[in-house]
């Protein structure tokens, strides 16, 4: 009898041990899956950030939205590591312990998702859907990564004549006189990779004919030089004459359009003053271009809906036609302006920082000089029109829509 009781006790203990072991193994597997997400805090944030691109979730443990996002965030970390050639770190910051860090990053709600490109001081705030495909697409678009055939760039086994590699040793001497079209780039930048062949062809076909020097600067090697020219995104294409920056190219990057820009600049049609941009943009759009020097006057009276953007931002490019349409809808309506600010230009960077622009595009609505609200809704024409019309309480404007 004693033997039977002891045997049953041993069996019971054995099964308990098996169950505990299974739970332990299961827990380890879960930890292993989640370990792809890097934990950052006030102690290691600044040291880790320059090492790679970072997509960071700022969260609070008590936040329900954060808890629901965590499994997707862990899956994103695993997917990025296995499917992207770019080194992107998926990380998280607990704002209940790293309070000062989250305050510095202007985190006012949870979760806040921000992308930090390697070597770029400004971060980009993510405001889209929080499913895996949308998050992955955002990363690819931010880095300029394309699918299969789009990654192929033109190559030429022959040395390209006219394309000049510029460095901190030869740059200033080279651009001291004459006209120069210079590409500032980073080797990891997908947009730069896609236009590499076009830029080389431009140097070969245009540089020799016109006397215009076509150059390029690797900003990962010559960061001081790129900082001097206020390069904040890649690629940045600058027209430089007699050692001074004249204009930043922001058009299409096709060979024909780049060539047309060179011809225009050589004929002396460039706007050389930043304040020349204070007027309404000419052409088919009534969108008002605001800059640091005229911003306060621009929003001082009436209702002003302002888009803060960066030319390299994919989301901004897709929004641009709708923004033009929105401005057209309000043509003739007294006291309403649809405007935009390029946050990569000169003094505009400080303006955007002062206005607490943390990502692109950011849209703020102003009334008589005061910021009223940030627009965070659907970017359709109807929704944005209704947002502005609600403030001005104009029933006629709604009927016209």
UniProtKB/TrEMBL annotation:
<dbReference type="InterPro" id="IPR017937">
    <property type="entry name" value="Thioredoxin_CS"/>
</dbReference>
<dbReference type="GO" id="GO:0006457">
    <property type="term" value="P:protein folding"/>
</dbReference>
<dbReference type="GO" id="GO:0005783">
    <property type="term" value="C:endoplasmic reticulum"/>
</dbReference>
<dbReference type="InterPro" id="IPR051063">
    <property type="entry name" value="PDI"/>
</dbReference>
<feature type="domain" description="Thioredoxin">
    <location>
        <begin position="16"/>
        <end position="144"/>
    </location>
</feature>
<comment type="similarity">
    <text>Belongs to the protein disulfide isomerase family.</text>
</comment>
<protein>
    <recommendedName>
        <fullName>Thioredoxin domain-containing protein</fullName>
    </recommendedName>
</protein>
<dbReference type="InterPro" id="IPR013766">
    <property type="entry name" value="Thioredoxin_domain"/>
</dbReference>
<dbReference type="GO" id="GO:0003756">
    <property type="term" value="F:protein disulfide isomerase activity"/>
</dbReference>
<feature type="domain" description="Thioredoxin">
    <location>
        <begin position="267"/>
        <end position="393"/>
    </location>
</feature>
<feature type="domain" description="Thioredoxin">
    <location>
        <begin position="146"/>
        <end position="266"/>
    </location>
</feature>
<feature type="signal peptide">
    <location>
        <begin position="1"/>
        <end position="27"/>
    </location>
</feature>
<dbReference type="Pfam" id="PF00085">
    <property type="entry name" value="Thioredoxin"/>
</dbReference>
<keyword id="KW-0732">Signal</keyword>
<dbReference type="InterPro" id="IPR036249">
    <property type="entry name" value="Thioredoxin-like_sf"/>
</dbReference>
């Amino acid at each position: 009898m004693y033997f039977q009781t002891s045997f049953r006790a041993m069996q019971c203990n054995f099964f308990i041990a098996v169950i505990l072991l299974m739970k332990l193994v299961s827990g380890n597997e879960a930890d292993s899956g989640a370990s792809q997400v890097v934990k950052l805090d006030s102690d290691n944030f600044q040291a880790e950030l320059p090492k790679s691109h970072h997509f960071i979730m700022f969260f609070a443990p008590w936040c329900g939205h954060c808890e629901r996002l965590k499994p997707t965030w862990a899956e994103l970390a695993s997917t990025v590591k296995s499917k992207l050639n770019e080194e992107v770190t998926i990380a998280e910051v607990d704002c209940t312990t790293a309070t000062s860090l989250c305050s510095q990053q202007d985190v006012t709600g949870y979760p806040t998702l921000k992308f930090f490109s390697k070597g770029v001081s400004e971060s980009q705030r993510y405001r889209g859907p929080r499913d895996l495909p949308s998050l992955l697409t955002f990363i690819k678009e931010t880095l300029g990564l394309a699918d299969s055939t789009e990654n192929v760039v033109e190559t030429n086994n022959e040395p390209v004549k006219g394309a000049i590699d510029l460095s901190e040793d030869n740059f200033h001497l080279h651009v001291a006189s004459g006209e120069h079209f210079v590409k500032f780039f980073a080797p990891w930048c997908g947009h730069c990779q896609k236009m590499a062949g076009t830029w080389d062809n431009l140097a070969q076909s245009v540089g020799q004919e016109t006397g215009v020097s076509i150059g390029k600067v690797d900003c990962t090697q010559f960061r001081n030089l790129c900082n001097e020219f206020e390069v904040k995104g890649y690629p940045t294409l600058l027209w430089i004459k007699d050692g001074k920056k004249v204009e930043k190219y922001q058009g299409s990057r096709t060979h024909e359009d780049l060539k047309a820009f060179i011809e225009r600049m050589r004929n002396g049609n460039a706007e050389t003053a930043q304040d020349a941009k204070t007027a309404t943009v000419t052409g088919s759009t009534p969108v008002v271009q605001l800059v640091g020097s005229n911003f306060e006057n621009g929003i001082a009276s009436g209702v002003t809906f302002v888009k803060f953007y960066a030319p390299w931002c994919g989301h901004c490019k897709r929004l641009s036609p709708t923004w033009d349409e929105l401005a057209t809808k309000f043509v003739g309506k007294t006291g309403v302006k649809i405007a935009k600010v390029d946050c990569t230009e000169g003094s505009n960077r400080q303006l955007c920082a002062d206005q607490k622009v943390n990502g692109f595009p950011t849209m703020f609505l102003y009334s008589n000089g005061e910021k009223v609200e940030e627009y965070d809704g659907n970017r359709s024409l109807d929704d944005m029109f209704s947002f502005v019309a609600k403030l001005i309480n104009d029933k006629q404007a709604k009927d016209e829509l």
